[in-house]
Amino acid sequence: MLIKSRIFQTPNNSQKGFTLIEILVAIAIIAILLALSAFGFQGAMENTRDTRRKSDLKQYQTALEQYANKNNGFYPGRTGGTDAHSTLCGYLSMTNCPNDPTYNSATGTPIYRYFTSDGGNTGLPQATTNVLWSIIEATSATDYWVVCSNGKSGLTTSSPSGTCPL
């Protein structure tokens, strides 16, 4: 009596698996979905950074108001525009001084800017108004988010100076 083992049996002609075409179609669909999600992700990241910029500038403005309350209503003077992070942190005694989320220390940009219209001596409490601003990413043109000492904040397309553009 002969015993047949499975090892010596011939394989069945019906093979299981995917064809090359099916695999290529699946890869193409995955690639398209990844490409679409990458564009959406980029926009979401820009919006997130812009929201942080707005929050950071509001934080600076709150600290400036506290400074003015202690100094007879005057803000730190500045004869021209300056980097808010390096200039204001010392005057405002902020423990965590925010900087732009895309700040690059090698190039120094982008940064939050601080202007006063009546600067007087730099750093002394002599300014009666101020303007803080940052470039906003998630717009088609070069727009600026501006926070003014008069309480106004919003977008402007003109490069801000010591006078509130809103």
Number of helices: 2
End-to-end distance: 101 Å
User: What is the succession of H and E elements?
Assistant: HEEHEEEEE
Estimate the strand proportion: 15-25%
> Domains counted in the coordinates: how many?
1
**Chain-averaged pLDDT:** 83
What is the alpha-carbon Rg in Å? 30 Å
Helix content: 25-40%
**Main beta sheet:** 5 strands, antiparallel
Strand order across the largest sheet: 2-3-5-6-7
Envelope shape = elongated
Provide the structure class: alpha+beta
- What is the β-strand count? 7
Uncertain spans, ≥5 residues at pLDDT below 50? Answer: none
Q: Layout of helices and strands, plus pairs?
A:
Layout: H1 20-70, E1 75-76, E2 82-83, H2 84-92, E3 113-116, E4 125-127, E5 130-136, E6 143-148, E7 153-156
Helix pairs in contact: 1-2
Defining key terms:
166 residues; alpha+beta; two-stranded antiparallel sheet; 7 strands; 17% strand; elongated; Type II secretion system protein GspG C-terminal domain-containing protein; N_methyl_site; membrane; transmembrane helix
Kindly summarize this structure in a few lines:
This is Type II secretion system protein GspG C-terminal domain-containing protein. InterPro entries: Bac_GSPG_pilin (IPR000983), N_methyl_site (IPR012902), Pilin-like (IPR045584). The protein is an alpha+beta fold and 166 residues long.
